[in-house]
Amino acid sequence: MEEKSRESGRAGGVPLRTPLYGWHEAHGAKMAEFGGYTMPMEYGGILREHQSVRTAAGIFDVSHMAEFWVTGDGAAPYLDRLVTNWPSRLEAGHALYTPMCYPDGGTVDDLLVLRLGADRFLLVTNAANHDDDAAWLRANNLWPARVTIEDVSRNMGLIAVQGPEAVRMVSSLADRPVADLPGFGLREPVEVAGVETIVSRTGYTGEDGFEIYIPEHGRETETIWKALVGAGAVPIGLGARDTLRLEARLPLYGHELSSEITPLEAGLGPFVKWEKPDDFLGREALARQKEAGPGRRLVGLRVEGGIARAGYRVRNPADGGQALGTVTSGSHSPTLGVPIALALVPAAWAKVGTELAVSIRARTVPARVVRLPFYRREAV
Amino acid sequence: MQVKDGLRYTREHEWIDGEGRVGVTDYAQDQLGDVVFVELPAVGQEVRQGESLGVVESVKSVSDLYCPATGTVVAVNEGLTDRPELVNQDPFGEGWLVQLRVEGEPEGLLSADDYRGFMEE
User: Fold this and answer.
1) Which of A107, A269, A371, B67 could potentially form a cystine with A257 if both were Cys, beta carbons 3.0 to 4.6 Å apart?
2) B61 vs A6: CB contact, 8 Å cut-off?
């Protein structure tokens, strides 16, 4: 056997460690580098971990994510200009998901914005983009006297608890109610297993659940992690995190989004707020693209007879197999038991039901455009 | 990790038995993780030692299967189409991949003891 390819994040320099590194090592995790950190990929089987999140509850060490406090009386207008969604309209105690664009409409990153007060926001961005994001946030601070940006990526622990049992589990360890939080609601401070945290009803799996921010790293993150394991939560590596988010059609930067891919092409139009009164970075370019209609679109594919991986070519199934586009993410869907993929294809080929083909090594196999997401949890 | 006596092994973690049956080792299946797809050659195909004999895919990785001997493919494990997890569950048994009619004597294969030694290095 020799490995030809494996999905991984951008490398560079000596990898960092999360506060849970020691725990992962001690519990037999397969570790690999992702986003500049040595992260657990799996503990004992991606399929089993995936299933645990869909049917019970899983916990994820996502302390590698980058976090920035943005504070000051200019914070809200600064963020409204920086991202395509509308942070100033958020009430304190709520979060939103948003792309952040270059002036040409390409994507700098996608992130969560948590509002903790009138002038106090927490931005959560991708670990692999940490350095670019930090530079971009600072370069676009037009009001340095009124906006303070503090990079706390290295100090903050972050645990995601996801799955149908997540609410019960976190509630049992919290000193205040959290079950009443609406989707994208957040609360602070909440003591979880005696440790002060910020709890938000967010996630990256398509399941209900929480993300628990631990502002001070070290042992305290592990205290919560161990309490959750004690309550029956299953540790989940980045391998299953990827199949879970793919089934739920949640974009991963570097795949469905990049400096070359706009949020409109990636199907994230609802997160671009045209009715926002002031200018925002990328507005003009995105408006032009919206007017003309994006030339390519992100589609979901059901692939027959092979697994279409990121970077594989999507082709016309007839006419000599002309190349049409590229797979952005693809894997075996543990829930559906079949290969699935996301791909960028010309708008004319994006309709549900369209027959396409994908090149897998020397073969070309059929693929059909299907409705997204691949998986949607049943309403409770 | 289990190493089965009576088989011969490659340094790329394939095994071959006296009847020309080929599979991957326990170590290989553990490194791969959950196998979800196997691409195998056609029966009748002629293969040479050291060439790619097929592809084994786990959720996250794509790996070449190397041919441990020169010969002709006489059977492939059809059961893996529906149950690729057999490669994980029983790598030396039901998770076999391909059967070859071996021509000549393959070179450089390891005995079970040599493979154990190689693994310890």
Assistant:
1) A107
2) yes
